[in-house]
Design goal:
- The chain has six helices and four strands; from the N terminus they run βαβααβαβαα.
- The chain is an alpha/beta fold and 187 residues long.
- It has a four-stranded parallel beta sheet with strand order 2-1-3-4.
- The chain is globular.
Length: 187
Amino acid sequence: DRALGVTIALWEDGTREIPRHDRLIRREVAEGRAVMVLNVSGMGPLEPPPFNPETNSKIYHGCHYRISDDLVFLGDSYAALRTYDVLRALEVIPEWGGLDDKDVRLYLEGPYGIYGALASALEPRLAKLRWVQPLFPYRELLENRYYNDRDIKSLILPGLLNYADWPDLLSLEEVADPSVARQTLGA
């Protein structure tokens, strides 16, 4: 009898990881909300096949590494493309019917939540967010000698540091535990 608010959920491997997030989804539904789990470009069931079957797609010289390089060469990036995917998700909500596109929350988990965080900096309707285990600030990556480089190229928005780092774009109160971001720096 009323339109449901929507929680857009974004984590690594999208809908492939729904069983691991069962508790969150059930909690949101119990609160009377719909949940939209995003498969952003190249993630989850949309992941491209590996160029080399013996190489993990998310490590150095894997397919994501190559695609990231190709996108940057073309003046684009995986981060920009996937941020755009999050923004486009807002356009789908009114098409479903029974959903309130003015009551939208983001639930982000892990480094791949950066796409939702960047989208929230661009779109006021995405201002309500919770980010668990966030990506470390880009500046820390540049200043740290050792870091985990797994799929790092798909997380970086080239040129952003000329203006700001991602934490400058949103309130750290929106991040579940900002100190957790530093834990991802370890190799």
